[in-house]
Amino acid sequence: MSKRIIKGLDIEECRILKHIVIVADKNYGETTIGNVFYKRKFSTVYNLLEQKKEDDKYTGSRIEKLLKEYPQQENYPNDRIDKIILESIKDKYPKSYLRNYLIIFNTDLEKIETLKSKNKINSKIYFTPNITDLSNVFVYVGKTFESPEIEINIYSDYQNEIKNGYTFSSSYFLDEKQILDELELIEFE
Description:
By secondary structure, this protein is of the alpha+beta class. The chain has helices spanning 53-56, 62-67, 80-90, 106-115, 177-183; strands at 15-26, 29-41, 97-103, 119-130, 149-156, 166-173, 187-188.
């Protein structure tokens, strides 16, 4: 039997892993056809929510809590960026969903590499402004808007299901300019 050493990461390396599971309807039922992974840094506004009091009654050690789905999924942060990334994929695959994991140990990094050991399919998400007020379209004449193009990888066992170069699209409101700056901080795997 070999032994492993579990080591806590430095605080600068700790992250929240966002795992989008891409689900499609097949002849034999719903099937996971791909996975998208990205990491988010902890911050004062992007942090774990306080657990409900009944969750805090769990008497195991802190490591046991982490290994037993603690914190609960609803206690992970999900902001507007997470929502628009997920919605861009749900637009094509409506049954897709998001899972969250802590990256605080060296073994968490190893787990990510294991999850990524599938066919890697290069894809993109295009972000465009959502213009809701079309009553006076002439106010937009001659104006320019940022439209970021984010490269993502879809990890899948089904090479033929999702083609290389597959694109997703998402939109942001014009008054959400800060989202474009924050997108640059996301670490797509």
